[in-house]
């Protein structure tokens, strides 16, 4: 038996999803001591990522109001507006957005919560919902 040329190829690097990239960019910004350039972000999350990709992600995050930018000469510097809890929430939302059966994912998540976490979630939902659900 002979080995095909395909078998000797090195595996391609795993492609990162948009949500994963956004989380990495936000984590880099959160770790910065102040506003930073897109090139600084690119260097922190891995030089294999194209500068234009980093700019696209930063622009998307700006549209979601989780980063701000300010003019610095001819370019911009960027800053995260989210804290650690906000970053975790964004990652959770991205996971949920990537699933086709949101109801099943949420149901599965809720059934694995501890009693204390379930109580906390119910309290938070009660605060967020107010009386909006009472009219339905």
UniProtKB/TrEMBL annotation:
One of its GO terms (biological process) is negative regulation of DNA-templated transcription. InterPro entries: BlaI_family (IPR005650), WH-like_DNA-bd_sf (IPR036388), WH_DNA-bd_sf (IPR036390). Keywords: DNA-binding, Transcription, Transcription regulation. It holds the Pfam family Penicillinase_R. The keyword Transcription regulation applies. GO terms for molecular function: DNA binding. It comes from the Bacteria. Belongs to the BlaI transcriptional regulatory family. This is CopY family transcriptional regulator.
């Amino acid at each position: 038996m002979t080995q095909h040329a395909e078998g000797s190829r090195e595996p391609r690097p795993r492609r990162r999803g948009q949500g994963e990239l956004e989380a990495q960019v936000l984590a880099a910004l959160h770790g910065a001591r102040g506003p930073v350039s897109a090139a600084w972000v690119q260097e922190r999350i891995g030089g294999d990522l194209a500068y234009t990709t980093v700019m696209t992600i930063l622009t998307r995050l700006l549209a979601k109001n989780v980063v701000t930018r300010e003019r610095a000469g001819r370019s911009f510097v960027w800053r995260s507006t989210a804290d650690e809890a906000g970053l975790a929430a964004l990652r959770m939302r991205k996971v949920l957005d990537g699933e086709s059966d949101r109801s099943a994912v949420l149901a599965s998540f809720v059934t694995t919560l501890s009693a204390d976490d379930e109580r906390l979630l119910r309290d938070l939902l009660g605060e967020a919902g107010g009386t909006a659900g009472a009219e339905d």
